[in-house]
# Entry
Amino acid sequence: MWGRSVLLLVVLTSAAGAAAIFYRAAVKAPPDPVAQFLSVHWAQPVPPQGDPPPRFTALEASLAPESCAACHPAQFADWNTSLHSRAMGPGIRWQLRVFGQGEANDCLRCHAPLAEQKALAALEYGWANAPTAPMPDYVSADLHLRGNTCASCHVRRHQVFGPPAAHHDPAPHGGFVEQQAFGDSRFCAPCHQFPAGARSLEGKLIENTYEEWRASPSARAGVSCQSCHMPDRRHVWRGIHDPDTVRKGLRRELELKRLDDGRLDIRARITAPGVGHYFPTYVVPKVLISLHLVGAGGERELARQVIGRTVSVDMDKEWSDTRIPPGGNSELALQVAAPPAPYRVEMRLEVAPAEHYARMYRAMLQRNPDMEAATLALLREALRQADAASYRLEAVVVAGPANAGETARAIAN
Ligand code: HEC
Ligand code: HEC
Ligand code: HEC
Ligand code: HEC
Ligand code: HEC
# Structure
């Protein structure tokens, strides 16, 4: 009897103690359901799906994007045009051929995050931990080459997760779990933000998009990554590779003033009010702004400026960082001898979305001339694609004022 009540007392007090500790913790930091969900959803590594529920059809169990497409054709059509569907292009594949599994798995966590994709990559590249048993039926043979697939973001242990439903139709695949996290910028952070302490240069992380956003006017206004990159929940994810997205993100102003002393004052100003982070956010793209005078005597470049963060091909040195921070601007101002009318000034804008990679690939071709033929072929194709990604926006053109004191300007936004 004695023993038992003493034991009971101990249990009771420790339960009260635990409750008090829990209460204090709860008061300090209320449990955040979005953060809790995401820490499990984006666990590193994403665990294998395991056996599908016995009642699932082969279509419901399949992780292939085409299987989802059977019932979600709109999301598939959009995703298929996005870079998420091409995240396992030749640019990463030639590198995987020369890496060991450890280093490669670190790339795959953002480029092809599912355990099943890593297993297929291990088979393709002959890594030591490649599975010996045949892959389950619900894994299509090319799943690892499909990049950031539907299942990467939506399926864990064969359970579908999605945003709160727009309409409540009965769903196959055992229904789905509604999660606010899908509309939250933190959903994108595991792949678009390096953790504190990861690779950085000049005290700035190599990839810092989520934190840039968090400190931006967009975050304060409640405009999430999804608001801009998934309008109406569309799976398009357009960014620096898309001229229309870049054009709409920017405001470009060009102003000319003919001064009394016979000179022409030229001011160009670029802001990025439609961008929710640095323009551009990553070290890869470069944007070249140039001013040109076009008149009877032909054409002459007056000035040029690169917008971007330029780092060495080995990512061990930062050469310059001229990106436009949220709310900031980039300006070019100069004065020239006023030309005889008629003349015009043009502000041109060239975008090289993959400048860093193109430079890096060229250096690798030079450094490793005797790579394996298959690796070399992928590297050459990656270089071709990186170069081909470049484009120009329409120039901002201002017809030059003819008389002293006159001003002319144009705005593109
Ligand atoms: C599992 C990792 C992962 C997640 C989660 C993820 N992304 Fe991505 N994202 C990538 C990778 C990798 C690329 C680059 C693909 C490539 O070009 O090879 C990319 C590319 C992009 C691009 C294209 C940029 C360009 O260069 O034009 C945008 C925009 C983008 N992601 C936005 C988002 C948003 C918004 C979210 C959250 C809803 C998100 N991503 C979630 C990995 C991810
Ligand atoms: C934290 C997530 C993350 C990790 C880890 C990561 N990447 Fe990426 N990678 C991205 C994102 C995001 C982009 C797109 C950036 C953009 O469009 O500006 C990208 C773009 C690329 C591209 C250019 C697009 C393409 O497909 O040609 C290559 C190549 C690439 N990564 C290779 C690698 C390699 C190799 C590794 C491992 C050493 C790696 N990445 C690790 C997120 C990641
Ligand atoms: C990079 C992560 C990511 C990938 C890859 C992805 N989705 Fe989504 N999906 C989301 C997010 C985030 C939302 C919610 C967006 C929001 O709330 O603004 C969403 C929403 C949805 C919805 C609800 C749409 C609506 O209008 O209510 C469906 C259905 C869906 N996704 C299916 C798919 C299918 C099918 C694929 C592959 C073809 C896919 N998703 C690929 C992240 C992803
Ligand atoms: C046999 C048809 C079918 C297949 C196959 C299928 N789905 Fe669904 N799914 C539905 C239906 C029907 C709903 C409920 C109606 C809706 O919201 O679209 C649904 C709901 C969803 C939702 C929740 C939408 C929301 O509003 O939040 C997501 C996310 C989703 N499916 C993703 C997937 C993914 C990813 C795959 C492939 C791995 C897949 N589905 C395969 C029919 C299917
Ligand atoms: C206010 C709209 C807006 C918001 C919010 C926003 N973006 Fe962007 N994003 C853009 C525009 C416009 C571009 C194209 C210009 C550029 O590259 O900066 C872009 C480009 C990108 C790129 C291309 C790579 C690069 O170097 O610029 C990635 C990746 C990206 N965004 C991811 C994200 C993620 C992740 C979030 C949330 C943390 C986010 N964006 C929030 C508008 C937005």
